[in-house]
Amino acid sequence: MQRIRNRLILLSRIMNRQMLRKLYSDDPTFEKPLHLTPSELSRYFTIDYKNAVAIYDQLHDTTLKKFVLRDQEISTVITSLDKQYPEQLLHLYDAPFVLYCLGNIDLLSHRPIISVIGTRNPSHEAMDKMEHIISPLIERDFCIVSGLAYGIDSLAHQITLQQKGKTIAVLGSGFHHIYPKRNQQLCNKIIEAGLVISEYPPDIKPKRWHFPERNRIISGISMATLVVEATEKSGTLITVDQALEQGKEVYAVPGSPLLTQTVGCHKMIQDGAKLVMDASDILEDLEKMQNDHYI
Fold this sequence. Notes:
Elements: H1 2-14, H2 17-26, H3 38-45, H4 49-59, H5 62-74, E1 76-79, H6 87-90, E2 98-103, E3 113-117, H7 126-139, E4 143-146, H8 152-162, E5 166-170, H9 184-193, E6 195-198, H10 210-220, E7 224-227, H11 236-245, E8 249-252, H12 260-270, E9 274-275, H13 279-291
Parallel strand pairs: 3-4, 3-7, 4-5, 5-6, 7-8, 8-9
Antiparallel strand pairs: 1-2, 2-6
């Protein structure tokens, strides 16, 4: 089993998830690519020969294999084959095959759990809104999930840590390249008291597309998503769309119509997101869903 896990971890560094899904359906041991020539890899994965050669070279790169072992020494690496892998992520079409974790991995199975997201440029009202709504959730043992970004994400993590609650940060980079850099200290505190996870190996630097990509994990491990503030064209809407595709509830906090940071929330509410004035709106709703066996 350990050999299969190591192969999967290695392949996840080399191949995209579409290729891994095809391979897994044909060969759950993930051994087949190790015995294919570049030409055979090209035909099997329907890729051009140049890419096939690059994959072949990496598959037989002893240095890369050492990275796989090193990563498991410096972090907890969970694959989709492991019992610790979050069950709710298994239902995602585009689920990550590998998660790198620092901190308390038991939080991945904690319930209740909710993602709290929003703009990177919050209004002067944001902190009061969040303490008003999130504090009672933390008191009820909710685990707060967010993305360690500036603004609402950082505030969500900070408030939870201050109240000695449970929090998970989902990164858009590897652990050695925390983004934004200014949040390195916050990240360290979350590792000590909560959990930091990433689908990217520790040495991977952040790329622009990593952040919308990681949002499916933020919503995927959560029972529901709370949007505190969002502008009309906020990147937060990507997470909201993914939450809705995953069949998760989306809650939005209203605010002054004069603030650009509330326009996105108002549009979400118009489109069917549930308006939240205080924590009871979320607690009553999720309690009913649990009683009805929806979650």
